[in-house]
Automatic annotation (TrEMBL):
The lineage of its organism: Bacteria, Pseudomonadati, Bacteroidota, Sphingobacteriia, Sphingobacteriales. It is found in: Cell membrane. InterPro entries: SecD (IPR005791), SecD/SecF_arch_bac (IPR022813), SecD/SecF_bac (IPR022645), SecD/SecF_CS (IPR022646), SecD_1st (IPR048631), SecD_SecF_C (IPR048634), SecD_SecF_C_bact (IPR055344), SecDF_P1_head (IPR054384). Gene3D superfamilies: 3.30.1360.200, 3.30.70.3220, Multidrug efflux transporter AcrB transmembrane domain. One of its GO terms (molecular function) is protein-transporting ATPase activity. Forms a complex with SecD. Part of the essential Sec protein translocation apparatus which comprises SecA, SecYEG and auxiliary proteins SecDF. Other proteins may also be involved. Forms a complex with SecF. Part of the essential Sec protein translocation apparatus which comprises SecA, SecYEG and auxiliary proteins SecDF. Other proteins may also be involved. Residues 486-649, 781-977 form the Protein export membrane protein SecD/SecF C-terminal domain. This is Multifunctional fusion protein. Residues 178-235 form the Protein translocase subunit SecDF P1 domain.
Amino acid sequence: MQGKGFIKFMAILLGIVCVYSLSFNLVTSNVEKNAKAYAKGDPLKEKAYLDSMATVPVYPLFGFNYQFCKSKEINLGLDLKGGMNVTMEISLGELVKSLANNPTDANFNKALTVAQTQLNAGGKDFIGLFVSEFEKLSPNGKLADFFSNQDNAKDLKANASNSEVKSYLSKEATSAIDRSFIIIRSRIDGFGVVSPNMQKQEGTNRILIEMPGVQDKERIHKLLQGSAELQFWQVYQNEEVYSVMENINKTLASTLKDTTAATTVKDTTAKTESKLAGLAKKPVGKDSSDVKKLEASKNNPLFSVLSIPTYQAENGQPALRPGPIVGWVAQKDTAKVNAYFKRPEIASIIPPTFKFMWSVKPMEGSKVFELYAIKVTSADGKPDLGGEAISDARHDFDQKGKPEVTMYMTGEGAAKWKKITAEASADANNKKAIAIVLDNTVYSAPTVQNEIPNGISSITGSFTVNDTQDLANILKAGKLPAPAKIVGEYVVGPSLGQTAINNGLLSFVLAFIVILIFMALYYNKAGWVANFALVINLFFIMGTLVSLGAVLTLPGIAGIILVIGLSVDANILIFERVREELLHGKSTALAIKEGFKHAMPSIIDSNVTVLILGVILYIFGNGPVQGFATTLCIGILSSLFCAVLISRLVFESLLNKHSNITFGNSVTLHAFKNIAFDFVGRRKIYYAISSVIIVLGFIFYFKNGGLKLGIDFKGGRTYIVHFDKSIETEDVKSKLTPLFENEAPEVKTAGNDNELKITTTFHIADQDTHADKLVEDALKAGLAKTGAKYTIESNQKVGPIIASDLVYSAYGAVLFSCLLMFFYIIIRFKKLNYGLGAVIALFHDVLLVLSFYTILDGVLPFSLEIGQDFIAAILTVMSYTMTETVVVFDRIREKLAEHGKDDLHGEERNKLINFALNSTLSRTILTSLTVFFVLLVIFIFGGDSIRGFIFALLIGRVIGTYSSLCISTPIVVDLGKSK
């Protein structure tokens, strides 16, 4: 075997990377164990302990702090951890109306309405739909008349063509989505979500947000859907605020008793009793090696949690640091400082012109926030300038090549800006800052150097390119409203997540044991080699998932188990070929060499087809489907490396030690021998069986009123409700129907008699932000009438637009995968009829699975809905068929090469195809049984949430095996009868 040294090097290197990636879980687990021991069941104490450890080194070797280690541990999906998954949609219709200054033109507004309707029906480009519809309604109309104005004259001329206006609107729409993304991200960061996951859905006006651990749905709704308000405020300087802070501290000291908190390091250079002696020169937590936890003095309750910014003056004494920052506070103490400021005795001594605000994010490398004192100069408490004054903002570079932001004001805004900047820069020795505020948090507070008369300003500082891009987007956020609405959400309770973890782990362990036992019993010593490769494979998969930052979901666990089941396929292919070579009288060493050589084409072909489908699943799916696809793709690559290369190294080592390597026992060695089943001759019987099942499927389709679509594909809301006792579905349905305005919900048991799945389309198309609460209040009122105690374990909402998009994505995934498989087979085997045979078999499998779903719907005790996970199952079933089919095709190609022929015809071809099917039958049956048993274990122990998904895989495994033996390859005969 060539390249053994390189393979060993790669295995060791990959092993080190995986050990490093997985080690973070051990470190964080140890810290959290200590936190639980310290808290003794008090969640507030536990959180306080973990907050205090955020910047403390906890990784023994590299000294990483807990915050860093936590960010590197394996991410659990919502179905395993609980939390919220939200899909936000930016209302481009309202953006366009705002850009046009809300015109009353009938054709303009009708074009907007029609464009929105077309978008709801599956359209993609809202701007393109709007422009196209406007041109239909007003053939001679000019869009520039609506959008061109003095403020955007540099971007859009008054005589611009409709296509130029379309480009302008598309650019503004993209910018609005980017601005909304930044605003929403900052709000979530401020909310304190641990490891939030946000991504823009490319090609759409939607943003996907995953927030593990979050359960306060109403608060999240308000947080995400509130309108952004950009403001410009003058700010007080540090020296102007210190006396107020000192007064607050003294007042608190006289009214608070027994207050203790963490304080900062005192200035060890201070030797006098000055007022500033003892105040921190650095923010708390800025450098964890300089910070010590000390008991706060009862005389300094505010200063025990808030550090006044100071510096060391020339005389060696601490002095107040100039600038707009008036305090540094650790994140865990910001709530305490807010509470101090709200106390009646404190609020009364804070001047009415003061308004305290926090920085939008902590200082770099810490969990410390900056506090600003905003100067209220108007009697009505409004800001000096609002976001409507901004006409544009761009990230740029100054003459020295450093990142900066250039801000442009409207005509009215420029006049106000001139006055504000003149006041801020009036004192040459004491330049003042102006705070840029969004959602009552300070994004930046640049110091004004000079009066700005023309409304064009440059904002400079210690910025990165990302900083200036974000700030430019924030400045533009207040210019034009683009409301964001929640069009889809998924909420999972923590108890449901823990159940999913338990079920997932149980199914994982049992499935793994099933495979290990089977391989050891069937292939004897060689089976143990395969088992060793499987263990290494599992280690590599988990390590790679963590190192890539992938999110592990319940379908992801199913994907790992499935990959482990499929990875034995490569070992079975190799071992069966080795056994064939041994029967020809070859030595063990030569048989192993030849077995690996002859099995490689089939292994590569079968794994490439599954990998292609995994990539398609990842591209077209989202959420759980992407989790499944991610583990599938990583697992396939890892399995190839372990099953082929690692196992080969182990065999080489055993041969060098002259060990006796056995590939079976007295029972298994002669299994599947001397089989000569006439698959080709009986093909018409198989065609008839498949036709009967498909016809029955059509009959039940019309009888049941079509396929039972899940809310993924039709839109709606689904609630999983746990009751304290068993409850009748019809009773719940009758109580909910009147409250849902006589729109009857669908009520089913969800695994147990005391768990129900309630689905409704009540108010699903309602765009009002209060619609969600209205539906949930009606649900709770109906459930209360049952007289049973209940808990809403999870809920999911899918809007009509999301549903239509998912339907078209599903069609695209299935058709695109069929097309790719067709071209792959033609390129790989250079036969058109082979490609056609494979693709026809794929469509046959899809129809058969759909037929079984319609026939068995209502018969089985679990839901058989068609949703995203079903599409994932369909594509996986297709991969089964392709895997089985290409193995047979490879054997046909091998036999043709042995005879020195390109192809055969007539009875000779029939004999060759039968030979290929029978010679690979052992591998086909063994692989199918292995995967089937694995899926059966997941089906039984994996939990209700993936039972329908696994059922599709189960029947798909049977159909895929049947199709590869009885349909796809025999079709090659009928498609290639004539030369």
